[in-house]
Amino acid sequence: MRTFRLTATAAACGVSLVCASSAGAAVSPLRQVTGASPFAIGCAGPGHDNTGRLNEDAEVEPWVAVDPAAPAHVAGAWQQDRWSDGGSNSVLFGYSVDGGSSLGLG
């Protein structure tokens, strides 16, 4: 029981620190960085297991990173065109070197 209380207390302190450290952070408005799929329908080719359904224009599992040494440098990646039975047509990425005012896509 003592271990559980200690773990719960440590977890609560960790959550408090995370919340406290982000409380003063400035957050800019959301900005869409993706658009229509760059892939033609059927681009997966004949070798793809077509038992699944293609969710065209779906961008899933996004990840974003900010360079702590240069906060205006932002990079993100996501799975493009997710298949219902797993996988996607590709993993794409976007980046900005001016805090999101302009975007580059890859």
Can you offer a commentary on this structure?
This protein is an alpha+beta fold. The protein has a domain at 48-106. Helices cover 21% and strands 32% of the residues. The longest helix is centred in the first third of the chain and has 22 residues, at 2-23. The protein is elongated and about 50 Å long. Mean pLDDT is 76; it is low at 1-11.
Determine the fraction of residues in helical runs and give it as a percent range: 10-25%
- Shape descriptor reads elongated
The topology string of helices and strands comes to HEEEE
What characterizes the major β-sheet? 4 strands, antiparallel
- What integer value in Å does the Rg equal? 20 Å
- What is the SS-derived class? alpha+beta
Beginning-to-end CA distance, first to last residue: 52 Å
The strand order across the widest sheet is 1-2-3-4
**Total number of β-strand segments?**
4
Number of helices: 1
Mean pLDDT: 76
Which regions are unreliable across 5 or more consecutive residues at pLDDT < 50?
1-11
Beta-strand percentage range = 25-35%
What keywords describe this structure?
single chain, 106 residues, alpha+beta, four-stranded antiparallel β-sheet, 32% strand, elongated, disordered N terminus
Short characterization:
The protein has 106 residues and is of the alpha+beta class. The protein is 21% helix and 32% strand.
Outline the secondary-structure elements.
Elements: H1 2-23, E1 54-66, E2 74-83, E3 88-96, E4 104-105
Antiparallel strand pairs: 1-2, 2-3, 3-4
